[in-house]
Design brief:
The protein is an alpha+beta fold. 20% of the residues lie in helices and 30% in strands. It is built from twelve helices and 36 strands. The structure holds alpha-D-galactopyranose. Alpha-D-galactopyranose binds at residues 307, 337-338, 382, 449, 451, 496, 498-499, 515, 518.
Amino acid sequence: MPIHSTHHSWVLETAHTAYSFGLNSQGLLAHCYWGPVLPRAEDYPPAPDLPGWPFNSQGQVVPEEFPAPAGLKYIEPCLKITYADGTRDTVLDFESDQRIGEDELVIHLHDRSYPLRVRLHYRLHPQLDIIERRVEIENAGDQPATLERVFSAQWHLPRFGAYRLSHLSGRWLDEFHLQRHPLKSGLTVLESRRLTTSHHASPWFAVDRGSADEEQGEVWFGALAWSGNWKISAEVTDFYSTRVSIGLNDWDFAWKLNPGEVFTTPSSHAGYTQNGFGDASRRLHDLIRDQILPHGHTPHKILYNSWEATTFNVDVPSQARLAELAAGMGIELFVMDDGWFHGRHSDNAGLGDWWPDEEKFPDGLTPLIEQVNRLGMDFGLWVEPEMVNPDSDLYRAHPDWVIHFPTRERTESRNQLILNLGRPDVQDYLIETLGRLLAQNNIAFIKWDMNRNVSEPGWPDAPGDAREIWVRYVRGVYRVWGELRRRHPQVVWQSCSGGGGRVDLGVLALADQAWTSDNTEATARLNIQAGFSQVFPANVMEAWVTDAGRGRISLDFRFHVAMCGSLGVGGDLLAWDADERESAARWIALYKDIRETIQFGDQYRLGNPQEEPFTAVQYVSKDRSEAVLFVFRTHIPEPIFLPPVRLRGLDPLRLYKVEGLSGARTGLAWMNTGVQVMLSDFESSVMRIRAV
Ligand code: GLA
């Protein structure tokens, strides 16, 4: 039974883990346990009943599941509300529990003195060892209340531990750097205030005891399914309790909760493993593929994107020439990037006017699409729906549709402003305009871009509190995207935000894949991809072979790096010679053979390119009959050679052959003796491993 309860204590069990909490003698809903599943129900500890401490109430000492500020309690709360009469604390009492099916539990709480209901939802993904939490806040009274913070969850670590936090940081062209540092007394805050997930940090955490590695050690990890302002607040209290709160960012946030209204938070997913960071990542990868992505098990086609070849100078002849070359190499999907729509000749103008530019495409997109289809490829297109250039018909008609403060100058970034997608009229305009584009053209793929961050976050006629914009905007993006998806189910969607500026478990319910980074230089990509893989699976990771680093980095190396994800090509094919196109065709043919193992297999990081000048990545099919190994060497002073690469994830007793090496050996042998790969600087290799 995955969920069992006795006398106001609840145990949530997944295949290998358990999570429990209960009411203590003071009625606090206290966290009890999160770790390996225990043999008997009686093995789980009771709700902690620690006494308070002078200057502190029990709530400061006991790890509450969903603490709100009340009494002598000063720890990081999950909730902050101001009631209509000005009262600013919240005293939550347990009301009841409710089971929804086998895998979901709801704990009903209410404020002791106000008609405010709080419902804590716990949903189990038993086979994935993941627990999903979200919260509903209902105003059951007749006066409005103002929400100033509502986190999705507070995740507690076993008390008295010394922990280390792993998270991701970066910037445009340099996303997803893995950071690890000890958690010390006090708060560590990670967040986005940029309206979107951001290149700078990711709503993901992993916590270990300081000695876990890729293969072993306890790791508690989690993520937030949200594509706007988010916050992670890791706290080590003065009473040696470590907890990670995660949810919507409360910075500049307020929500007027009207009578009868329910506010629902995004979900936070979290898990526990004893098998290190690699296993933590694989659990998230499976979660994303099995539960979050709309079609997580449909292989992605190999695409060509013309951006780096033609930038804004697109027209039928230029694109048709590239399409022919792409088709000749075995590419399956041709994507025309920026520059195709009304008035778009540079990044100065056009955003918002989503119909084909009359000069570049006098007969619309159909002639090009038909040509691409005749070459045997699907056709895809770039759009940036949330943006508008002041030089556009849309802005001239609706200057009030952008996010702005009336008294402030509107700060432009890349010459563009942000449409306020919190507004239903803006949402409807986009659904209609983009819907028409998709209905009138045979478009199989959309790259949805977002190329700036917010400024002057105002909404002059906001329906509630103007600070609701942070949440209403993201919900608006989800509505537009969801509606377009529903109406045009044939389209595969990519989330891009100047590269990896919007990749999270929220957008991945709408997008089928993400553009990892605008940086396509292969050695930089090794680092970016390693960080990306902490959270996201390879099928989500769109990776192109481009001309970045061409003189220095071989085409083979560039292909191998891009083949570690969902392969694409983005170089200027007109500048590639026949040999290059032939090599490309060979790698593309190989990728078609191995893509299911890469996109849907278990990924093992066998090195850390962020720390060492060589690395390796291995993908193992779920049935363990097939694996693919990529090895990369960047620069190590010669003549040192690489250490043997110990394989992972194979069936210990089955026999496997490694391509290029003679003789079959057991999985156990390959995993313990390794594969010696001889590479010089800036060389790489790909090897198939097959059970015999
Ligand atoms: C962003 C994207 C690029 C490209 C350009 C087009 O920078 O990340 O891949 O689409 O916009 O303007």
